[in-house]
Write a structure and sequence with these properties.
Layout lengths: L4 H4 L4 E2 L10 E2 L2 H9 L2 H19 L8 E5 L4 H17 L7 E8 L8 H11 L2 E6 L2 H8 L7 H19 L1
Parallel strand pairs: 3-4, 4-5
Antiparallel strand pairs: 1-2
Helix pairs in contact: 3-4, 6-7
């Protein structure tokens, strides 16, 4: 093997030599896992997951056979919630609580919007069931909202209506 003995033994090492990687630290899988577990992002994930587990238990939110629709806007909050729910699902499976998750995103046909990065993330990175609901609420909002008024109220109501209908379809 070309790997240093210290790497094979689970220790990190400084490499030096003619391989072009002089001074690069090499870590074992165990060391990398520990480093990842202690990262601020991972600590936050486990803190949030602990609170999600407590809330799910206190309110008996999940039962075996449930189907959970997670509305994903493309922002950090909904993305974090989706990842946390997927992690919780994995943790509940061994105790007999199995539920399906479908991520749902509403493409409101806003000019210039490209949903492909979100689709790639859902499909390729998370490998989660997803549905992109295409509904031209944007032109309705623009048409029905008075000049110099905010689109937010009408837009959110139309989006919620689309999501309620999608939830009924998904069961």
């Amino acid at each position: 093997s070309d790997l240093p003995a210290s790497f094979l033994n689970g220790n990190s090492t400084q490499t030096s030599g003619s391989d072009g990687f002089a001074g690069v630290s090499v870590f074992s899988k165990k060391q990398l896992r520990k480093q990842e577990q202690n990262s601020p992002a991972n600590k936050l994930k486990w803190k949030l997951l602990k609170q999600l587990r407590k809330t799910a238990k206190d309110y008996q939110m999940f039962e075996d056979g449930d189907h959970v629709m997670v509305c994903v806007s493309g922002g950090k909050d909904s993305a974090a919630m989706l990842v946390l729910l997927m992690t919780l699902r994995e943790q509940l499976e061994p105790i007999g609580i199995r539920f399906n998750i479908t991520a749902v995103h509403v493409d409101q046909k806003q000019p210039g919007y490209d949903g492909e990065p979100l689709v790639r993330w859902l499909r390729d990175e998370l490998n989660v069931d997803y549905r992109i609901v295409e509904e031209d609420t944007y032109s309705i909002v623009v048409d029905k909202t008075a000049e110099n008024k905010s689109y937010c109220t009408m837009c959110s109501r139309l989006r919620r209506g689309v999501l309620y209908s999608t939830a009924m379809e998904l069961g």
